[in-house]
Amino acid sequence: MVDYHIPVLREEVLHYLNAGDKHLIVDGTLGDGGHAEAILQNSGAQCRVLGIDRDAEALARARKRLAPFGERIILVHGNYSEIQSILAQKNIREIDGLLLDLGVSSRQLDTPERGFSFTHDGPLDMRMNREDSTTAADLLETLSDKELEDIIKHYGEERHYKKIVRFIRKAQGKGPLSTTASLSKILSSAVQQPRPARIHPSTRTFQALRIAVNRELDHLRTTLTDSLQILNAAARMVVISFHSLEDRIVKQFFHDEEKGCVCPPKTPICICGKTSRLKVVTRRVVTPSAEEVKANPRASSSKLRAAERVYA
Ligand SMILES: C[S@@+](CC[C@H](N)C(=O)[O-])C[C@H]1O[C@@H](n2cnc3c(N)ncnc32)[C@H](O)[C@@H]1O
């Protein structure tokens, strides 16, 4: 049996995407194709899925897995932030749903050569798309102290950012930092935690570097905004995030786009012209059940939010 990434919140994704009688769903983070397969299995024969992934290796695996669906699956190697141009190239103007299951797949995390994980030694790479030019090792070499501190502070929400950069610079004095194990060793000595610690001392800095290497938050912001141009009326956008930075962006975006007029309260007639473009369908954030977390601990931090496109 092939060891695929386990799709998180599978039933919830199906419920909120509501793909049954729809025609075209975009899975912007195809990964191993688990969610795409579930969507195809649970929708009518008219429903197609356009799957995008920036990782060519993930795409190759998904291609095999989804082959039985024939022309109902369309695969694209690319970045979901290019969704508008990807659709334009295929002469598609509107879609009936968008799924973003953010972050990295288990396959990426568990492949040491990809350099995402501090639990395996490997090159300090972290590129989701191996055709991109900048690796995590490159960032450590080329960024200024201040730039590196900012990344670790903001993307890792790590309070020991100054000390970490000091320790990294000291180690770089003896030679370039090029492996996950060598960075993790430095982080373990820089970050002192109470025992037993809730997370590994490398967790936050590895997250920060990964976000920076792949410009994850920029791509997410762009895509949320651009998708408003291509979602049909009543089409749903479903986003699963794995840390508070992503979830905050999604929550705020949904909130802002649900709001209509933003004129000051006493303005007699609306002059801002803003109308509501989304209706939030998950009033409370959706999280996995205890059973799901037990079966798949990697689901534990997942949070799902969904909204429906409305036209004034
Ligand atoms: C959590 S996995 C998705 C797993 C998938 N839902 C499944 O069921 O197998 C995230 C995937 O999104 C891809 N990815 C992350 N950011 C991306 C982006 N900006 N554009 C395209 N793919 C992206 C990663 O390469 C990874 O394969």
Task: Summarize the topology.
Layout: H1 10-17, E1 24-27, H2 34-41, E2 48-53, H3 56-66, E3 73-77, H4 83-89, E4 95-101, H5 106-110, H6 136-142, H7 145-156, H8 161-172, H9 180-190, H10 203-214, H11 216-227, E5 231-241, H12 244-258, E6 278-280, H13 290-295, E7 303-309
Parallel strand pairs: 1-2, 1-4, 2-3, 4-5
Antiparallel strand pairs: 5-7, 6-7
Helix pairs in contact: 7-8, 7-10, 8-9, 11-12
Bound molecules: S-adenosylmethionine.
The site of S-adenosylmethionine (SAM) has 23 residues, from α2 and β2.
3D architecture notes:
With 312 residues, the protein is of the alpha/beta class. The chain folds into two domains: 10-107 and 216-309, Rossmann fold; 114-214, Putative methyltransferase TM0872, insert domain (DNA polymerase, domain 1), CATH 1.10.150. Helix content is 40%, strand content 14%. The protein is built from 13 helices and seven strands. The chain has helices spanning 10-17, 34-41, 56-66, 83-89, 106-110, 136-142, 145-156, 161-172, 180-190, 203-214, 216-227, 244-258, 290-295; strands spanning 24-27, 48-53, 73-77, 95-101, 231-241, 278-280, 303-309. The chain has a seven-stranded mixed beta sheet with strand order 3-2-1-4-5-7-6, sandwiched between helices. Helix 2 links the parallel strand 1 (24-27) and strand 2. Helix 8 (161-172) packs across helix 9 (180-190). It is globular. The N and C termini lie far apart (49 Å). The structure holds S-adenosylmethionine.
